[in-house]
Alpha-methylacyl-CoA racemase
Amino acid sequence: MPLTGIKVLEFAGLAPGPFAGMILADFGAQVIRCDKIATSTSDVLARGKKSISINLKSQNLINVLKKKIIPKVDVVIDPYRPGVMEKLGLGPEILLKINPRLIYARITGFGQEGYYSKVLGRKNENPMFPANLLADFAGGGLICALGIVLALFERVKSNKGQIIDAAMIDGVSYISSFIFKMKQNGLWNNPKGENALDSGAPFYETYKTKDGKYIAVGAIEPQFYTILLNKLDLKDLPDQLDMMEWPKLKSIFAKKFLEKTRREWEIIFDGTDACVTPILEIGEKNIGSDIMLNKHNKDRNFLSKSEDADDMFEPLPAPRLSRTPSKFFEGSKKVTAAEFTRQPKVGEDTFSIFLSFGISKSECDALSEEGAIFDSSLSLDSKL
């Protein structure tokens, strides 16, 4: 795997930090998640990681981290607000002096300084919630993981670490480069919800079906649009790119899609280039539309069924590398779902991880007695 041998110390947080760490773990890195003592549940993005349970209020624990662990790790993921790690004595300036090759990744909403906000939405509606996929995961975790990999690659040449400032607002802006350029070129100048790709165009929209479900349409190119009209049995319509006619066309399409169920439309458009697909809901079990049984999903095999529940699954790592794939695709046979999806229990690896970094049994005993560390699974003696 491409990141085999890389050690990552991930301080537990929410969404973007755990996602960045999961990406690194999926591709071979040893990711050690630092959980707080007395935390009862592990993060849902913890697959493939180890968990240590520590008390960052303990100065003895901080000293051990600096002396024994920081010199031996390659990456630190900091999910906290600006200044938190500095107050703990674990800021990047201090840790880079201890380990000049360290990659220190910081994930925040707006960076280390400045502020900004964004607006998404349909015409004449309040801004919509795109879940937290844009900021937390795309602009935050994914961009952070990219920064870590770039810094690791550069370190091969310079033998030096560096600080990564992964501000979610920067990341969201970066992945929106296409929209910024479209606006500059006069292709995205209408109010929200009235442009080609933000629900303004009838050929790039979602429509409700007879059974109350939804179909997605993305027939932008004229050849695809022609197939769409043929399959909908629609003729003598206004020009596709006449924006003044878009409201009329959307009304026509909306009424047409209400004539059949989603499954019926799926069969009609199956195998065509009309860019029409069913919108499947997570955990859906309807005949012909089970997300795990969808033909493309089965062919691509990018979902893993969870061993814990029949109706649960997880997307597999992406992208796929032919020679050094992620752990799920490593070798000629995939690992089992149980191996891949298992989430570590909080603190179950504390003693074994500390011992692996050369921290003695007596030091572990002392830290445990003080309440600075805790192992939730086994006693220290059984780890030896």
